[in-house]
Amino acid sequence: MAKQSGIHGIRGKINGVSYYSSKNGGQLIRKINEGMSSRVKTAKEYANTRLNNAEFGAAGSLAGAIVRPISQRWRFILDSIATGKLVKAIKAAMMQDTASPWGERVVPLTEMAHLQEVFNGFSKNEMPQEIVDVLQKGVTYKASDNTLNFGQTGIMSDDLAQQLLDKGATHFNTKVFAFNVSKPYIGADGKTYVPAESLMVDISTTFGVDHGDIAQKDDFFDASELSNSPAVLNEEAHLGGVLVVFLPERKVGNEYYTLQELCSAYWCPAKAA
């Protein structure tokens, strides 16, 4: 049943026409093609459409695996159309997989550098360049034993510390996730799934920092644990890297308050060791 959603807006179906809102608040109208859904699922002429839909489903699962750990805790960091951006980027990268048949293509490791800029577009704010430089130099993936290694430390510079202090931040948290995604598969229900063991693994207890002191220019990561402390990926992994969430905060008394307007996230693909 159609419902009025504003002075002019309508939501629902009227006489075979569907009225709905876009994420940016616009009003859209679409004609309903009754019976088309069942034909797309079975008709021979829609075979290529089904293959394309399977890959979009895999791209959606993959994008969800990236966005979910942030959205569950720090939704304010995300761009409003973050998932859509990632799905588009992942689908484009899948087309570079020439070894797998259409409908089963995945993101080749060789495409990770190409995807990096787009993947990082899901964060409203840019990660401080100092942290980006440390990640790009120090994250490696070793295929022979499926390990993800962190080989660089990062001490906050005087310039970055002063910038954060000037904006009212006194401390920061750094959360770190290892990212391991296996090849998506089609379940018995026809839906596309990413294996549970493939999602983000929170390794902040090893590599992250809680309430780092900006005035003291503390390390971005736990320096004592960075060297020779690999995060093991499963044998089917085809995409590895780390997601870092940087959360500046202000200490008032004994309480810490996250400064949402300064927070950012950055995904860094691992280079071959």
Task: Give the arrangement of secondary structure elements.
Layout: E1 3-4, E2 10-14, E3 17-21, E4 27-31, H1 36-42, H2 47-74, H3 82-94, H4 112-119, H5 129-138, E5 139-142, E6 147-150, H6 158-166, E7 171-180, E8 185-186, E9 192-193, E10 201-202, H7 204-207, E11 209-213, H8 223-226, E12 231-232, E13 240-252, E14 255-258, E15 264-269, E16 271-272
Parallel strand pairs: 5-16
Antiparallel strand pairs: 1-2, 2-3, 3-4, 5-6, 6-12, 7-10, 7-11, 7-13, 8-9, 13-14, 13-15
Helix pairs in contact: 2-3, 3-4
Please characterize this protein's 3D structure.
The chain has 273 residues and is of the alpha+beta class. It is 30% helix and 27% strand. It is built from 8 helices and 16 strands. It has helices spanning 36-42, 47-74, 82-94, 112-119, 129-138, 158-166, 204-207, 223-226; strands at residues 3-4, 10-14, 17-21, 27-31, 139-142, 147-150, 171-180, 185-186, 192-193, 201-202, 209-213, 231-232, 240-252, 255-258, 264-269, 271-272. A hairpin with a 2-residue loop joins strand 2 (10-14) and strand 3. Helix 2 crosses helix 3 (82-94) and helix 3 (82-94) packs antiparallel against helix 4 (112-119). The longest helix is centred in the first third of the chain and has 28 residues, at 47-74. Mean pLDDT is 75; it is low at 224-229 and 233-238.
